[in-house]
């Protein structure tokens, strides 16, 4: 959360945020929309990478519209029309957002337990009232003069990151981990996302305040394709050495789209933060797809806003929209968002509060 205060302060001409209420007031009219989404379901499903497949290779936490299923065929499913509720605070947002689960592997006997997500902080210094879930950002350019963005068309989808990565990807850091101290549990730490305080790999030390994982998506689109075979080629990051975009796009992907970003807070406090687990270069965490390095961090996005709603919000940035303070959108209560849940499409134990002999699906660890 703290990076949002920093960026908002830069835009307002100040970087001092000793008073969180003052920071919120000075932040209004900024360049991003930020809101929470509660946990919809935890299951092995991925309608982008593995459409139609029950029990996909690895476990995800999914948030958003409850029309989420294993297909999400845009020719037959229109999330705003087929969803009966959304786990996101924005009532008109029936998009789906999902990320891989993290598991703790016991150094004693090798069994696994899922690391729970916890709510992120708000600009007023309190914690969002949500069950697990993630915090979602939609951003327009932070630099340059052209702030106009064009919202995604119906059926649009994309991913950021690659679960097959075993080394740090080239270019700007777009998927990263921040190790939080106990005092940073609410704020999320200081500084912009994926800066020098963050690492592409899992932290190599205990994180008593949790681990904040950031997933940043591209900001430019080819203007033609709703998807691509690798689910990434139809979009591109803006030129430059920073993941957060300016107002330029390459000629191959000329359409400036809202830049989506996730913040996921994993609760690695308590027993998970035992220093004994971090000796001799070892650490006990592993992604649900078997990655102990952390380099394979990734996220999936499937657009599902009601017609015109997101465009109104993006056009309102700088005047009447900032974070959840946006007169262009309807906001539901945290209780209503938390109540939007659905059962697994293929039932199995996910490792919440119980130890598993192997990762769900028998995924090998590498």
Description:
The chain has 366 residues and is an alpha+beta fold. It has one domain. Helices cover 10% and strands 22% of the residues. It contains five helices and 19 strands. The strands form five sheets. Strands 1, 7, 8, 10, 11 and 15 form a six-stranded antiparallel β-sheet that branches. The chain has a five-stranded antiparallel β-sheet with strand order 2-3-4-17-9, with no helix packed on it. α1 (2-12) packs across α2 (20-27). The longest helix has 11 residues, at 2-12. It is globular and about 55 Å long.
Mean pLDDT over the residues: 90
Order of helices and strands: HHEEEHEEEEEEEEEEEEEEHEEH
The unreliable regions are: 9-29
Rg, Cα atoms, Å: 19 Å
Shape: globular
Structural class: alpha+beta
Count of extended strands: 19
Helix content: 10-25%
What is the first-to-last residue Cα distance? 32 Å
- As for the number of domains, it is 1
Strand percent estimate: 15-25%
Most strands sheet = 6 strands, antiparallel
- Number of helical segments? 5
Outline the fold blueprint.
Layout: H1 2-12, H2 20-27, E1 32-37, E2 39-43, E3 60-64, H3 79-82, E4 96-100, E5 102-105, E6 112-114, E7 117-118, E8 134-139, E9 157-161, E10 175-180, E11 210-216, E12 220-221, E13 235-236, E14 255-256, E15 259-266, E16 285-287, E17 298-302, H4 309-316, E18 321-322, E19 325-326, H5 334-339
Antiparallel strand pairs: 1-8, 2-3, 3-4, 4-17, 5-6, 5-16, 7-15, 8-15, 9-17, 10-11, 11-15, 12-13, 12-14, 18-19
Helix pairs in contact: 1-2
